[in-house]
Amino acid sequence: MSTAVDVRGVTKVYDGKVRALDGVDLKVEVGKAFALLGPNGAGKTTLMRILTTQLKPTSGEAYVFGLDVVHEGAEVRRLVGYVPQEMSVWTDLSGYENLLVYAKIYGIPSTDRKRIIDDALEKMGLRGVANNLVKTYSGGMIRRLEMACAMLIKPKVLFLDEPTIGLDPSARRVVWEVLASFRKEHGVTVFFNTHYMDEADLYSDEIAIINEGRVVKLGKADELKRSVGGGVIQLTLGDGMNDKASSELKSLSAVGDVVLNGTELYIVVEDAETALPEVMEVLRSGGIPVKRVSMNKPTLDDVFLKYAGTRLETGGRVSEVRQMRRMIRRG
Amino acid sequence: MFGTMRTLSVMMELELRRLKHERTELYTRAVQPVLWIVVFGPIMGAVRAVPTGGVPYTDYITPGVLIQSTTFVSIFYGLTIVWERDSGILKKLLVTPASRYATVIGRSMASGIRAIFQALIIVPIAILIGVRFLPNALYFTSALLVIFFASGGFAAISILIASFMKTRERFMGIGQAVTFPLFFSSNALYPVEIMPHVLRELALFNPMSYVVDAVRALTVSGNLANIATDLAAIALFDAAMFFMASISFKRIIE
């Protein structure tokens, strides 16, 4: 399998004091969707700006399809599509004109231009509003227009910096759907930054967890979650527990620990889904009535907590939406 | 080279398209120069205190006022750059195959498009008021070209300012602080010869003086004696400003 993105020991220090990246190593295989997951300020955007040749690393090397981002920047820029976190289209132009301007900047020959632009508009579901000014668009439509801009040249790698920031859930889903169909058609490698665990979980083949400028863990979502350890089965009992059932539970191979708190029974297990039938069998044969069962499986948040030592920020989405709206109005 | 020319032309096309959709700014910005021509010109002209070489005073200041207003347009064009930096537009432009120098120079030159349209709004009003322009299409077109190229240089100054002033508010303040001294230390309202000694020396280094002189020669006075010097000064000014803006652009990005 060949490598689409190869980062080796990259550091970035701003103004000689702020250490945004502190020795990042990672590899992304061709055709994969790769998520860089981390809280705000972890260095995600800095790394992406280095990979898209906007910034030079302080030390270390990075390659996109074997091309050095520092010394072969012009060649790299011909291969990549990029959607920055902030809004990146002219709001006082129509959607079509935005695409036209970018098509010309990329030097797409005039004979193909219209066909390629129409195709991009069609794929992003923007055909009907192509001639409206972008300032009349919703946040989700703007994002799709930006993706259309990035896809004009059929890039080999698509860099998306927080692609769904500030969007409502349905607009987020649409963005991922159009991206998925584009991937299927062109086999493009996708490298995206996010601080939404669910997106990293659902839409990536591989995840790198980044915190304070360091990649603290790398792997597939499932592997990462398994690495945290098992889940917890929580049962509300109708009656007291007896010692026999308790020791029988503890002897089960899938069970790690059993904690009783009043009528609440917590059972720590390796894999909640396979352990539950055995647990229920023991309780039923012991004649212990169960009123309620719930299972907690590890999430990426738990993974994050384990490797980064902090939780991912979950708040702030409302303020992001406001910020996005303000930007659109101002433009 | 081909890529650079393409980037420059796309940046100008972009500006034309934006103007097509939104022209309010051009009209509101025309108010001030029109006041200079309609009110200030006739009143000061009545005093007959300024030696204008036989040209009516209002006619004399019209090119100056025109250049002042197009220069304002260019200097405040930096606001667009600040906006494009705050949004992701600049970042995205940097990740296209276009060279960043072509992007800077293209953005600067694009302000020239805006400046030409600004001039085209003011000129008919001046004609209505009775300003007599030289009836020479070649001269007039040349004057517009002078305005176009000079505007690029002033817009480059504004990119330079934008690289230091990272917020719009600060930019507005400094923009005002730059444009008015440029205007008053130039030959826009009075000949350099009647200025105090120190100002006269300053006017020598004021690019606006050369632009006004060239446009005045091409539109009202018809005296082309200094035109070569003027054009050389403007070319030098543009080259220097493009160079400095290109260097400072790195600060804007980071």
Explained architecture:
The complex is a heterodimer of chains A (331) and B (254). Chain A is α/β, with parallel strands linked by helices and 331 residues long. Chain A is 40% helix and 27% strand. In chain A, strands 6-7-8-3-9-10 form a 6-stranded mixed beta sheet, sandwiched between helices. Chain A has a 4-stranded antiparallel beta sheet with strand order 2-1-4-5, with helices on one face. In chain A, strands 12-13-11-14 form a 4-stranded antiparallel beta sheet, covered by helices on one side. In chain A, helix 3 crosses helix 4 (110-123), helix 4 packs antiparallel against helix 5 (139-151) and helix 5 packs parallel to helix 6 (169-186). The longest helix of chain A is centred in the middle third of the chain and has 18 residues, at 169-186. Chain B has 11 helices and no strands. Chain B has helices at residues 2-21, 24-47, 57-75, 78-86, 89-94, 100-129, 137-164, 168-184, 197-204, 207-221, 227-253. In chain B, helix 6 packs across helix 11. The interface between A and B is medium-sized, with 36 and 26 residues.
SSE blueprint and pairings:
The complex is a heterodimer of chains A (331) and B (254).
Chain A: E1 3-14, E2 18-29, E3 33-37, H1 44-51, E4 59-64, E5 67-68, H2 73-79, E6 80-83, H3 95-105, H4 110-123, H5 139-151, E7 157-161, H6 169-186, E8 189-194, H7 197-203, E9 206-211, E10 214-219, H8 221-227, E11 232-237, H9 243-251, E12 255-261, E13 264-269, H10 272-285, E14 290-296, H11 300-308, H12 317-330
Parallel strand pairs in A: 3-8, 3-9, 6-7, 7-8
Antiparallel strand pairs in A: 1-2, 1-4, 4-5, 9-10, 11-13, 11-14, 12-13
Chain B: H1 2-21, H2 24-47, H3 57-75, H4 78-86, H5 89-94, H6 100-129, H7 137-164, H8 168-184, H9 197-204, H10 207-221, H11 227-253
Helix pairs in contact in B: 1-6, 2-3, 2-6, 3-6, 3-7, 3-8, 3-10, 4-7, 6-7, 6-11, 7-10, 7-11, 10-11
